[in-house]
Amino acid sequence: MVVSGDSEGGGADRNGGRGLVDDVTAEGVDVLGHDLQKLARPKETIANNLTPSPVIVPASMTQPSANRSPFPAGFFDIAPILVGVFPFGLIAGIAAVEVGLDSIQAYAASPIVFAGAAQLAMIDLIGRDAAPIVIVATVLVINARMAMYSAALAPAFRELSPLRKAYGSYVITDQSFAVSIVRFDRVDETLSERFSYYMGASLGLWVTWQISSLAGVIIGSGVPEEWSLDFAVPLVFMALVFPAIKDRASTIAAVTAATSAVAFVSLPLNLGLLVASGLGLVAGVIWSRE
After folding, report:
1. How far apart are CA 246 and CA 241, in angstroms?
2. How far apart are CA 219 and CA 91, in angstroms?
């Protein structure tokens, strides 16, 4: 389900968000695109142009639970999303083995990179023998949104120690950002309580990703070579892209990136994916500002 709308100013943004939250059920509701953007963005920050990925926002995020401390509350709030994360991680593990990585290398990608779509893109480029600089640059372009997520969370975590900021930034994902920023906007908590909630959500997803990736590596290692599973990665990307196309700007970005990827497939050093990602990003940003 796609939920969108326009509002006038920050106050209207909050009223729009409150109306949305009031409608959610105990099981949660899909909150996409602009609604999370409006809830998330601090005034006059880099987060003003942020558009998070689709997530499920449980009603429990609108008020503290009387029976749960912040850490388990974060885990339970992100739990519905983990159902979709597990098969995604499974495919990442299988794909890593399919491109020729040994079991240790294939699994190490998950705790080291921990980047979902960027991790799959990295695996795909490794399978094509792309230059290391191209692989790193592609991952950085795909994960550039994490800098905006961090900027949006910065006011809530400004007083944290450098160590906590470091490992908090390591576990940030689209999903943990989305559930946390909505919670912080609705619930008045201390710095320690906010960070505990965030870590509960983030570690819930991190553990799920590591387990599912490991399972994928084990399964992939036992699959006969004639059972080629190379098709799995493109299918996963399709599953990620289509739900994210929710307005004209995202449509322009997707079409531009797809067209560019085909047009530049013959570029040396496998630069096609990197160029296509950059052009799609630029096209989407330009269109969203018009």
Report:
1. 10
2. 10
Own/partner contacts of 191-197, CB < 8 Å, gap of 24 or more, are 191/156, 191/157, 191/159, 191/160, 193/70, 194/70, 194/156, 194/157, 195/157, 195/160, 195/164, 195/168, 196/69, 196/70, 196/71, 196/74, 197/70, 197/71, 197/73, 197/74
Could you tell me how far CA 284 lies from the centroid of its own chain?
17
Structure tokens at 277: 């990602």
Q: Compute mean pLDDT per 10 residues along the chain, 290 residues long, and list them.
A: 40 41 40 41 41 48 62 92 86 88 91 88 89 90 86 92 94 91 89 95 95 91 63 60 77 88 79 81 81
CA 80, 236, 153, 10 torsion: positive or negative?
negative
Give CA–CA dist 290/281, Å, rounded: 15
Rounded to whole angstroms, the Cα distance separating 287 from 290 reads: 5
Length of the chain measured in residues: 290
Q: Report the distance separating Cα 220 and Cα 260, nearest Å.
A: 31
Cα 259 vs. chain centroid, distance in angstroms?
23
Which residues contact residue 107 at a Cβ distance below 8 angstroms, ignoring those fewer than 6 apart? 93, 96, 213, 214, 217
Can you tell me the distance from the alpha carbon of 129 to that of 290, in angstroms, rounded to the nearest whole number?
A: 39
Helix axes 103-113, 191-222, angle to 10 degrees: 160
- Is residue 114 within 8 A of residue 131, CB to CB? The reply is no
